[in-house]
């Protein structure tokens, strides 16, 4: 009887747990870290962000928490932030309006002031791109350090010598089930459904237009002759090659850090 009661308590506790959206979690986390007063935090929870220095740096913190801000380039990651907005179905100019807002606003930001730049960039999206939404399933992509750690963990789990991570063939082709391990830990892949292209875009699309990104990925994957394989490790090979190619392109464009930062085991 006691065990049944205990199980019921656990069930009710799990059922009553509130799953918050990444945006709400980021607001609470930044409110704590930046010691925002309760009255102002209530304003932020209501998605009201006044133009003052404290709020500007708060927005930058939120974007960092969402992995939507690139510190090296001091730019908002479009592919990450776009999932938090839903444009009106009849609105065909939301992208152009957002782009014009960015073109008109960002040149007026003080050079080197990343708080101001983050704030005004976010407002351009909030005011022009669509309705700001909060959903628990919005994807916070892994960071570059997360990916580096995934590499080391997968190598250790699969008993691959870490020196092999510097081998171009290992990285490109993902031998010995390494490919599947990296994709699963990056949360962009499943054995049942393959690559989640929406999540892959959030992680690696950056400022590429989503439709073009998805089309390229689909064309790349269409060459996969192993997509019907029952061997799960073999089935992950071509998806991993796409993942690796896009990751290399992203780091080459990021300005201050090249791909060797992630692929060099000495950096972790």
From TrEMBL:
Coiled coil: none annotated. It holds the Pfam family PBP_GOBP. GO terms for cellular component: extracellular space. The keyword Transcription regulation does not apply. One of its GO terms (biological process) is sensory perception of smell. Residues 1-17 form the signal peptide. Its main location: secreted. GO terms for molecular function: odorant binding. Keywords: Disulfide bond, Secreted, Signal. It comes from the Eukaryota. CDD domains: PBP_GOBP (cd23992). It is found in: Secreted. Belongs to the PBP/GOBP family. This is AAEL014431-PA. The lineage of its organism: Eukaryota, Metazoa, Ecdysozoa, Arthropoda, Hexapoda.
